[in-house]
Amino acid sequence: MTDERIVPMRLQRFLARAGVASRRGSEGLMTAGRVTVNGQVVTELGSKVDPLVDVVAVDGREVSLANTHAYLVLNKPRGFLSTMSDPHGRPCVRTLVPTSRYPGLFPVGRLDADTTGLLLFTTNGDASQRMLHPSMHVWKHYVALVRGVPTHGELERIRKGVPIDDSVAQPAHIEILDGHDQQALPVAPEGVPYGHSVVGLRIHEGKKHQVKRMLKAIGHEVIRLHRDEFGPIGLGEVSSGCWRELTERERADIEALVAQGRH
Ligand code: URA
């Protein structure tokens, strides 16, 4: 698991995150000798700072990450609830993310306890609300190990919009994945068992047990479910139970997505 106490970051990244300038612009400030760390001028671009400990200043003015929102992705393991606490004391994702570094961190939406994969966290309540709003149509990609092999006709039912319970699921993208495909690994690490198959499904709805219900509606029980994309964000190389911060590019993508919803 990632140790939240030891997360130094590059100084130019810190400055960009604090909103001082772009990363390139921040490098310019550093090489111009305008940035100090604990009172010492730092011009070396590889220098790192610990945002919890080091005092960073530009032209003598202290800067901090206090007013910037945190965004990170967790590779949720099986057996963890997507909540920050549980009255029954069951394992929660709270213990897997750096809440003391980022107070107010919470998950954007939920995954079932037995679902693994990408769970986005943020301290930005406004962005979270917008990303979850049905009108935003944020696409999510799931990989599922299912019993049986869906026929062409069954896949078409999902593509056209399959009735589930008292409503109809929106049309979704679905394909059968090759068991050797990298994407299939999280749900079939030892290969696809006989009489099963792996499907990739892209949906933009987020109702309770949405994927399991859609696949059940075409006659295929979900055995394992993993999410590997949420809107513009992919899980990347994050091991189960570990987290990573979004890159500057991903933050910008999320902010652009959220801004779109404001129109
Ligand atoms: N759909 C499900 O059925 N479960 C999840 O955890 C996410 C989507």
Protein model, in words:
By secondary structure, the protein is of the alpha+beta class. The protein contains six helices and 17 strands. The strands form four sheets. Strands 7, 8, 9, 10, 13, 14, 15, 16 and 17 form a nine-stranded mixed β-sheet that branches. It has a four-stranded antiparallel β-sheet with strand order 3-2-5-6. A hairpin with a 2-residue loop joins strand 15 and strand 16 (233-234). Helix 1 crosses helix 2. It is elongated. The model is unreliable at 1-6 (pLDDT under 50). Residues 111-112, 115, 209-212, 225 line the site of uracil (URA). Uracil (URA) is lined by residues 111-112, 115, 209-212, 225.
Summarize the SSE layout with pairings.
Layout: E1 9-10, H1 11-17, H2 23-31, E2 35-37, E3 40-41, E4 48-49, E5 56-58, E6 61-63, E7 71-76, E8 106-107, E9 115-122, H3 125-132, E10 140-147, H4 152-160, E11 163-164, E12 167-168, E13 173-177, E14 196-203, H5 210-217, E15 222-230, E16 233-234, E17 243-245, H6 248-260
Parallel strand pairs: 9-15
Antiparallel strand pairs: 1-4, 2-3, 2-5, 5-6, 7-9, 7-17, 8-9, 10-14, 10-15, 11-12, 13-14, 15-16
Helix pairs in contact: 1-2
The structure holds uracil.
Offer a few descriptive terms.
four-stranded antiparallel β-sheet, elongated, binds uracil, Alpha-Beta Plaits, 17 strands, disordered N terminus, about 260 residues, alpha+beta
